Predict the structure.
Amino acid sequence: MAGFRSLARQARDPRNDLALRRYSLRKCLERFAPYGHRATWDHLCSRAGFDPEDRSPEPARLTAALDELEEARAVWLAYETQFAERRRKEKHDGLRRPGTVDDWHRLTWGGFGVAWCDDPMVHPSEPLAEVLNRLIAALEREPGTACPVCTGTTLRWEHDLAHEPSSGPVCTHCGIVVPRPVLTPASLAGAWRARVLVSA
């Protein structure tokens, strides 16, 4: 099975026909898709300026989508390296019990669904790397009261999400499932209450 870098080379290679290049880019999303496969694809297509159903997009637009994905992946891989080093040091120092960030991180290893968007048509519009940098910054500071990506404060608890965890606080503005460790207990409770009020 081809890895991300191999697929990215196929997607970038001008000697390949456009159908194969597009297919290879789609396959890259099986390895790294911060919003989930469908939402990340929709995001890349809208930012690069081609229709998600276009079977032979302009090569420059396809390359622009790949560039954005690769830049975001580099951000995430750097974070994972730092995370692994920190955990090694903590274990060496006798801290064996992982924290809430570690629990969340285990579900997102490799970068798939780190900013999960359950509705593939609702996702942040900023570049993926910028979104991931904001999310990483939030994971490294004290919990807050807003979405770390768009600073929206309207969060609603959703159940039956198509990703683990299967329930959690969703930002009603940008659509991401906000990682629980970045929110205060009061914000999590507020998201829960918002869900109850909508359901009532």
Q: What stands out?
A: The helical segments are 4-12, 18-28, 37-48, 59-92, 100-107, 128-139, 185-199. The chain has a mean pLDDT of 91. Strands lie at 155-158, 168-171. The longest helix spans residues 59-92.
